[in-house]
Amino acid sequence: MASILFENGVFLEARSFGASGVRVGEAVFNTAMSGYEEIISDPSYYGQFVIFSTPEVGVVGVNGQDRESTSYCSGILVRHTPTRYSNFRAREGLGAWLQRQGVLGICGVDTRALVGMLRDEGAMQVVISTTFMEKDALAKILRNTPPLREMNVIPMVSNKATPPTHGSYDFNTLAYRPLAHTQHTIGVLDFGVKQSILNHLGAVGLGVRLYRHESRAHALIEAYKRGEIGGVLLSNGPGDPLKLKNEIKEIQALIEARIPLCGICLGHQLLSLAYGYSTYKLKFGHHGSNHPVLHRATGRIEISAQNHNYCVPEDIEHVATITHINLFDGTIEGLAYRDHPILSVQHHPEASPGPEDGLYIFQEFARLVRSPNTALLPQTT
Hints:
23% of the residues lie in helices and 29% in strands. It has 381 residues and is α/β, with parallel strands linked by helices. The strands form three sheets. Strands 11-10-12-13-18-17-16-14-15 form a nine-stranded mixed beta sheet, with helices on both faces. Strands 1-2-6-5-4-3-7 form a seven-stranded mixed barrel. Strands 8-9 form a two-stranded antiparallel ribbon. 51% of the residues are buried.
């Protein structure tokens, strides 16, 4: 019997089906109805417990092909998980996989009620023991553990991805098609990059050179001057971007060097901070694969995959054009910076898991790398 204690004092008993142990993390909810393997292995969830709003999780097992990295969330909470799985791609069950990866799996809880609690009160710390513990004992652990919002966990996830084979993945034939050649190579500042981002960069003809999060700007600038890279992508990643003060200084140097830049999720936030516009924390964040985003230039509503707790401020429009808006709450989802070859998006255009409406962002970045002085995304009037 597992024991759960939330920061607000809510105490629950449940069942464990994953790894064993006692773990503390930040509880967030995810509204995606599929793609749990990608979600669990998304480095941006490092240090967090994911509460799935969909009631049945684990039906199609785990295949390994959909894994995003070797970094995982702390655990998952689900209403129910089946004892059997069925899918032609599956290689093992969800519970067995969680045990091998050291991820807690908790079932038998009213996840709908927990989602409502987090929606009303915001993301919060939680401690979970896979064996029964008294509430007072769990409360002591919770009090003595620093919350995720006070920690810098980027060193735990940087450069954990596998460098991609340059090509594209065909979801119809489940085959990998290598490109005939790589048109340009870019640097990826890795704050916890997802494998799908690397794959889609390869799919648009961009080779990848991975740089750890603490890499100095002068190394990338020199590589750019020598023609070894044609731009830099700032990846997704976990935690509060304000904790990355050294990385922000290095990004400022990249901006001054006028290197083509693209930011995704955390990278989007770091660019805002590098320009001097502070980020802020959302009440419960955006986590799911069904968030509507307005592309302002075309008027098109794109369905997006999202995973973030922080946003950039509206006054960023003093230095950038707002290209995308979240239709749930009006927060900024995309920017094209004026007078610099820089674009960024808050959502995940790599669509893993989720729809493919935003894949054109990789094509836009490839165009920017090829021609740094051309216009970015179509501008609104």
